[in-house]
Amino acid sequence: MKKAIYPGSFDPATMGHLDIITRAAKLFDEVTVVVMTNVRKKNTHAFTVEERVDFLRRCTKDLPNVQVDSYSGLLAEYAKKVGAVAVVKGLRAVSDFEDEFQQSLTNKKLNPELETVFLTADADSMFLSSSVVKQVCSLGGDINDFVPSEISEDIIKKLRNI
Ligand code: ADP
User: Fold this and answer.
1) The domain that contains 58 carries what CATH number?
2) 92 annotated active-site
3) Pick from 50, 66, 112, 135: most CB atoms within 10 A?
4) What angle do CA 156, 131, 118 make, to 5 degrees?
5) Ligand 1 center from residue 121 Cα (angstroms)
6) How many C-beta atoms surround the C-beta of residue 70 within 10 A?
């Protein structure tokens, strides 16, 4: 049984995240999406960890081998704890690479059994980030193509204080 973890802030989940989750679910027997608290982005989160987990659970409900969890410690330790063999990461552009490469090497040092698997972003969603969603939505733009339909209303309500 090959288990993978897919970590991120998911503040909020986007179509780009869902694309990576769907593809990872085909490659591994089990995938756990892990909502992490990113120290660098900690004070800029728009959604609570509970909201982010709930959003991800709602948009992955049709993927039976996908689970959602949250964690605030070291990813390498979490991987050991749940017996994951790989960390899945999405790569949008060269700009994602340097940081991801560094994280991958650090995780490997901390947990030598752990591999990082990079999936290239889908051409249609490679411009998408949670920040783009937050920006467009707060300024009144249409986010229906950017986020899964199950969660778009809740995102709009919170970001526009409705
Ligand atoms: P963001 O950079 O949007 O705040 P996260 O920290 O939540 O994203 O990202 C979690 C993971 O998902 C990272 O590996 C990131 O590269 C990947 N990812 C984010 N947006 C996309 C996208 N549009 N397509 C593919 N992968 C993505």
Assistant:
1) 3.40.50.620
2) yes
3) 66
4) 120
5) 9
6) 15
